[in-house]
Structure formats: structure tokens, C-alpha cells
Amino acid sequence: MEILQLIVSGLANGSVYGLIALGFVLIYKATEQVNFAQGDMMMLGAFIALGLGNDSQIGAPFWLACAGAILAMAAIGWGLERAVLRHLFGQPQIAAMILTIALGFLLRFAAGAIWGHDPLALENPVAGKTLRLGGTVLGLDEVATIAVTVVLTGLLYLFFRRTRLGIAMQASSQNQLAAYCMGIPVRRIHGSIWALAGATAAVAGILFASKGSIDPGTGFLGIKAFAAAVIGGFGSLPGALAGGLIVGLIEPFASRYLDAGYAQIVPYAVMLLVLVVRPHGLLAQVHAKKV
Amino acid sequence: MTLLEVENATVRFGGLTALEDVSFRVGQGEIFAVVGPNGAGKSTLFNVISRFCQPASGDVRFEGESVLGHSPSGIAGLGIARTFQNIELFDRTTVLQNLLIGRHTRRRASILPQIVFAPAVRREEIAHRGAVERIIDFLDLHPYRDNAVAGLPYGVRKVVEIGRALSMEPRLILLDEPASGLSVEEAGDMRFWIEDIRAQLGVTVLMVEHNMSLVSAVSDRVMVLADGRIIALGAPREVQSDARVVEAYLGTGTAMR
After folding, report:
1. What pLDDT score does B252 carry?
2. Band of residue B250 on the pLDDT scale cut at 50, 70, 90
3. Short-list A170, A263, A158, A78, CA closest to B116
4. B180, B110: one domain
5. Is A164 on the interface with B (CB under 8 A)?
6. Cα distances (Å, whole numbers) of residue A171 to A57, A142, A179, B97
């Protein structure tokens, strides 16, 4: 059952892309800024987990290291908004865009300075283990990645659907002026959004690192996730996830059936195709009312 | 009893003085209208009270306490709600959801009980829904409650925005040109809404409005602004016969009937 293996590994990679894409869309919807450092935040989250958890480093238990990385990235996201992005409130979009590209470089250099530029593996309980399903052998790391993504997506859905903060985030993304008058502190909400995007990036990073190795350049995965967000429709959270899964699924099949050189191009070719056929992305219209 | 007190408020935008030494008081339960030609400073006055604009000098007190230290979102918690001349609604949601966001400052539950929808959260939600349904009843919004706001007629959206402000259970509501863009019949309905807002909900009304027949019909007192200054303040009939008011309006080519 090679097909099943390809699907599972595609979904696992796609989950990571989807979670990074989710970070892009969260910030874009609420603040109309595109955070090109989202991929690098993912990379940094993975490194923080590695720094806390690996035996050669601090050596904390894996789950503690994960919690630490998620909290640290939430704090870093919040701090970046507070210290940097907030000052660009009301400035042209391009300023924030360039700034986040620079932030990405900064995070990459910081990670390189602390952890070096060689690929490192995150020690984790699922690495290298397999799951036997009848005649098929699946990587436990990949199954775990999919499972964690499903749970996180469900939590985010409930968060936006039911909590006061989640609804306030949606309100500020639809109309900031009106949100202020409803008693929603819009700027503080932007900080919370960045914190949420940071935490999501950390989860994506941990999942990605659990399936292989990371180095500071891993952040460039953000470009692929960006394509995923565009495919899904940039303003739609379910679209971002769907886009991530689509890109993730395309990759293993493309490299299975195409020459290695061409396989890399396919996700971007799909992005171009989607932009031509449905300029607002696949799910933009359908889910315009939901987050 | 004074509910809102504006004292010597002055606002400058660069070299332009938008408001100059403006002082007035709005009493509890009053319907108070602000009129004046375009550029007189009416919107600036509203923006000062709702904290989108900081005065160079002067003070604004609500229930005796200065509001100048509060942010635009902090004002909502004090009991001041407002509408906008150009309607600022959450366009991609329904009428019901817009009104429910008005309950934001009154929600108390914390995040985990909300996610699992604990019994206490359920009870709170029922109470909020009840409050919102009463506003829907009050403003006859039943036919539209589940419609997306973006597709509704202008006049209905205007009422929805008032409904959203009222679902905050404010003590004071600021209405920015509630009748602008409305048909004659809709403006007539608006008159009754405004009267009922005070009579049935006990909410004090401060409004900016150009429609003088509406202003004369509902207001207890009218304040006329021109070039950032108060040129008249009093009962509608007194104000309309004031020579300076007539001059201010004729000077800008707008007849006041």
C-alpha cells in the first residue's frame, strides 16, 4: 500500500505547512500585515524545544520542552508586535512586509549563532518508530503530526467560535473602529494574535523537527506555507489548512511520479493555476463568513 | 443631574482649531442635539468624547469622572456607546451576531470554561441572548435577525447599528447623524426610536443631526456649533430664531427651516 504511505507522509508535511499558513492568515486577517518571518518563527520554536529538551543541551523532559517552546514563542510573538510592529500601525503595508522579512533574517542569524548551522535532530518519543496497519508500515512521527494538527485545529475552532477573546479577534479583523466602540482593546488584541501565531508556529516547528532534522534555514519552509495560504485564500483559516494539506499531498506524489527537478516546481505551479482560476483562493468565498 | 460634562474643550489639528473652548452639560435622561454647518466641529466633539481624538486642553467628565485617561475601548465599559455617520458594522456577520458583540464588556467567564461551554457559561450566554432579543424586539429587527449585515438596506443597517450600541446597555448613546441618508418615512421612524430609547430604556441621547425637523421634534436642548465655537444653546425654538444661528447657516448656503 504505497499510496497510503504517500498520503500519510503528504498529510504530515501538509499539516506543518498548514499550521505555518494559519499563522500567516491569523496575523493578516487581524492586522492586515503579512508576517514573512512566520517560517522563521516556526524554526525558532523548534530550536527552543530542542535547546530545552535535548540531552546534550538542557535535557528537560520532552513534554516540558514543548510547553516551554510554545510559551516562549507566544511571548516572542507578543513582544515583536509590542516592540516593533505596533509602531507601523497605520503605515503602508509594504513597510511591515519589509520589516518582517528583516525579522526573519534576524531570527535565522540568532538561531545560527546559538545552535550552529549544522542540521540537528530534536529528540522525541516518536522518532523512528513505526505503526503497522495491516500490511502497511506508517511512521509514528507522521501519524502523530497529523493527530496533533487535528487536535490543534479543533481547539482553534472552539477558541474562535466560543471564547470572548476569539470572537473579539474576529470582530477587530472585520472592523477596527467598531471593535473599539464595543470595548475591544484592538491593539492589545493584535498582541494576542501575534502570541497565538507564535504558539502555532512553535507547534508546527516541533512537529516538523520530530520528523527529521532542523537547521536555521528550515525557516524557508515559510515560502511554501505562503503558497499554501495563497492557494487556500489568504483570508481564510480553514483555507490555510486546506492549502497546506494540498501542497503537502502534491509533494510526495510529484516526486514519486516526476523527475526530482520538476517535483519541486509543482506546488508553485498549482499556486499559479489557483491564482489564475480563482484569484481569491480556493476557500475564500465559501468560508468568508467563518474564520 | 449632570451625566456628561464637557469643559473648555479645545482641539487643534495643526494650525486649524476644530473646537475652541467648548463647554456644555448633558443631563441624565436628556435628548441633546448638536447641529451646525459642515466643518463646525460636531464630529470632532464626538471623537473627543469617544476618545478617538485628544483635546489640547479642557476636560470631559462622565458621571463626574474624567474620561480623558481612557482608551476608545475603555469608554464602552463606562457606559458610553456610539454610532457612526457612515455606519460601522461587522459586515460579514449577521444582525444577531453584531448585537451579541455589543455584549463584549459584559461577558465575565474565562477562557477554559468558554471552550468547554461550562454550565455557568451557558447560563451567561442565555442571559446575553435574552438581552439582545429584547433589543431586537424593541427595534423591530426580527425580519433581519439572521441576515448578513452587508446585504441589508441602508435604513435597516442604521437601525442595526443603534441596536448594537443599545445591546451594550449604555447610560449614554452618541448618535452621529441618525437620520442622514434615510427616506422621509424612515426618518419619521427614527424619531420614535430616539424617543423610545429614552422613554423605555432610560438612555440619555446626545446626537449630531442635520435634519432640523427631527431635531426640533425630539430634542430637549440644541447646541449650535460654528467654526468650532458654540453660538447658541437652548430649547429648539429659541435656537432656531437666534440671529447668529440664521447667519451661520445662511453664510454657508444652507437654509434652516
Report:
1. 52
2. low
3. A158
4. no
5. yes
6. 43, 36, 6, 10
Burial class (CB in 10 A: 0-12, 13-18, 19+), A136: middle
Query: Residue A133's pLDDT is what?
Result: 80
Mean pLDDT of A233-245: 89
Q: How many CA atoms lie within 13 A of A20 on its CB side?
A: 38
Which chain A residue is nearest to residue B147, measuring alpha carbons? A289
Report if residue A28 sits inside a domain. yes
Confidence of residue A284 (pLDDT cuts 50, 70, 90): low
**Cell numbers that stand for A178 in this block:** 467598531
Cell (9 digits) for A59: 535535557
How far apart are alpha carbons B33 and B194 in whole angstroms? 11
Ramachandran class of B41: left when φ > 0, alpha when ψ lies in -120 to 50, beta otherwise: left
Picking from A51, A157, A73, A166, the residue whose alpha carbon sits closest to that of residue B109 is A166
When divided into structural domains, chain A yields a total of 1
B91 vs A159, A174, A185: nearest CB: A174
Q: Is B89 on the interface with A (CB under 8 A)?
A: yes
ipTM: 0.90
Q: What is the pLDDT of residue B95?
A: 97
Distance CA A266, CA B72 (A): 48
pLDDT of residue B3: 97
The minimal CB distance from A182 to the residues B71, B76, B91 is found for B76
Q: Report chain B's mean pLDDT, rounded to a whole number.
A: 93
pLDDT digits (tens, 9 = 90+) for A14-65: 999 999 999 999 999 888 889 999 999 999 999 999 999 998 999 999 999 9
Regarding whether B207 and B161 lie in a shared domain, the answer is no
Is residue A290 assigned to a domain? no
On whether the CB atoms of residues A277 and A228 are closer than 8 A, the answer is: no
> Which amino acid, residue A14?
G
Residue B84 in any domain: the answer is: no
One-character DSSP codes across B69-81: TS-HHHHHHHTEE
- What Rg value do the Cα atoms of chain B yield, rounded? 19
B72 near A CB under 8 A: yes
State phi, psi for B88 to the nearest 5 degrees.
-115, 90
